């Protein structure tokens, strides 16, 4: 009995959750410790619903308010709400939405950084009134193939950057993605900046983080917004050159937007009646680099919150938002076909797979489905490498995956570098 009491007290102190199942096996003679197992496996009864007290007109319930304690058979008193007389931020109660100043009868559908649209790219194309081209622009591909734009010992230095982010910076077998994913992007951007000696225009750029974007537009009878933080933004003093010519832009007027009836285009978007119709880049007036160049999105976490299709939709929407805000700053809020289209690029990665998107805003007439459409170039699912492991994966005495970096794909970094050099050559 003394041994059981000692083991029971020990288990009670250690076991506070269901993670201590193995500790119960250590009890001598295989006996159960009821003080621990009962709290782990005891039946949990559902919470009872509060009793609804009927109110009868003309009758006042007899309560125990005068006695200052609970009395069986008497009703629970109802006291008026106590007011402090001063505002306590720790006990703030927001007013009802109908009482707020920004409340509007017409709802607004918001796309933020964690929105996962069920239709993916197709839904983003409808929201931005765009037509997709499943290939990389020829102007950017020519930059990737030009030997003059290559870095000295490029492949070796890129592989060292990958190893530095995944293997050399940690003693773990597999570092967390929240750590190595942004580190890899910064190392690659630093490597691309080496070409500033050849291309002085690269010095006229600035990298911003945690800026707050807000863009508002109308599609049909609905109000839409793109809002929130969305990654690293590379800004430039000069805008990106136009990729599609006038003939290609006018040719989009004959294309029809793909619909996904009976699913509504507003599905999975945040719906709210408390909002402000504003369009802002997130930067103050007079910012030296007002033109959005490339948006870098990092989908971190071992269990990513967005699938590749939804991630590409997010890239399209935030490129569209940055371009729309810049167009309103240059041409005003009046809907029109832009004389000089605005181009914004985006790169997304989870640390291994890269997604590339180039968006060209051709029109601000977004309310109807007819007329000129915007253009989107998408290049999807390009791996930078296959495996990067600190230890080799051996199965049945056969090395399946060697230690270190394997399966490096140089074409992926060439496209990454081409987007970085776009507009500076």
Automatic annotation (TrEMBL):
GO terms for cellular component: mitochondrion; ribonucleoprotein complex; ribosome. It comes from Danio rerio (Zebrafish). Pfam families: PDCD9. Keywords: Mitochondrion, Ribonucleoprotein, Ribosomal protein, Transit peptide. One of its GO terms (molecular function) is structural constituent of ribosome. It is found in: Mitochondrion. The keyword Cell membrane does not apply. One of its GO terms (biological process) is translation. This is Large ribosomal subunit protein mL37. Its main location: mitochondrion. It comes from the Eukaryota. Belongs to the mitochondrion-specific ribosomal protein mL37 family.
């Amino acid at each position: 009995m003394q041994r059981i009491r000692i083991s029971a007290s020990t288990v009670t102190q250690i076991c506070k959750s269901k993670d201590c199942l193995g500790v119960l096996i250590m009890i001598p003679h295989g006996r159960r410790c009821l003080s621990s197992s009962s709290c782990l496996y005891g039946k949990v009864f559902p919470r009872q619903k509060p009793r609804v007290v009927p109110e009868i007109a003309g009758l006042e319930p007899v309560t125990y308010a005068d006695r200052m304690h609970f009395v069986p058979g008497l009703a629970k008193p109802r006291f008026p709400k106590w007011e402090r007389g001063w505002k306590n931020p720790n006990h703030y109660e927001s007013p009802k939405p109908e009482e707020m100043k920004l409340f509007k009868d017409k709802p607004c559908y918001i796309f933020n950084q964690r929105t996962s649209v069920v239709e993916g790219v197709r839904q983003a194309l409808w929201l931005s009134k765009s037509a997709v081209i499943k290939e990389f622009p020829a102007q950017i591909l020519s930059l990737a193939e030009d030997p003059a734009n290559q870095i000295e010992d490029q492949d070796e230095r890129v592989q060292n950057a990958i190893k530095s982010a995944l293997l050399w910076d940690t003693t773990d077998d597999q570092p967390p993605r929240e750590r190595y994913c942004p580190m890899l992007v910064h190392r690659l951007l630093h490597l691309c900046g080496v070409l500033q000696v050849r291309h002085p225009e690269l010095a006229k750029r600035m990298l911003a983080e945690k800026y707050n974007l807000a863009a508002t537009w109308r599609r049909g009878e609905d109000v839409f917004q793109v809002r929130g933080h969305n990654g690293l933004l590379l800004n430039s003093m000069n805008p990106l050159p136009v990729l599609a010519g006038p003939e290609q832009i006018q040719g989009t007027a004959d294309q029809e937007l793909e619909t996904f009836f009976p699913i509504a285009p507003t599905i999975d978007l945040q719906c709210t009646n408390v909002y402000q119709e504003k369009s802002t880049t997130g930067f103050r007036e007079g910012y030296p680099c007002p033109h959005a160049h490339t948006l870098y999105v990092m989908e971190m976490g071992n269990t990513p919150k967005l699938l590749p299709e939804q991630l590409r939709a997010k890239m399209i929407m935030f490129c569209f938002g940055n371009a729309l805000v810049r167009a309103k700053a240059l041409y005003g809020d009046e809907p029109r076909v832009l004389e000089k289209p605005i181009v914004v690029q985006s790169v997304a990665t989870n640390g291994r797979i890269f997604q590339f998107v180039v968006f060209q805003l051709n029109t601000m007439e977004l309310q109807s489905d007819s007329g000129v459409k915007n253009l989107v170039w998408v290049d999807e699912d390009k791996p930078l490498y296959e495996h990067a492991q600190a230890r080799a994966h051996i199965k049945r005495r056969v090395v399946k995956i060697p230690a270190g970096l394997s399966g490096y794909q140089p074409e992926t970094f060439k496209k990454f570098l081409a987007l970085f050099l776009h507009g500076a050559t």
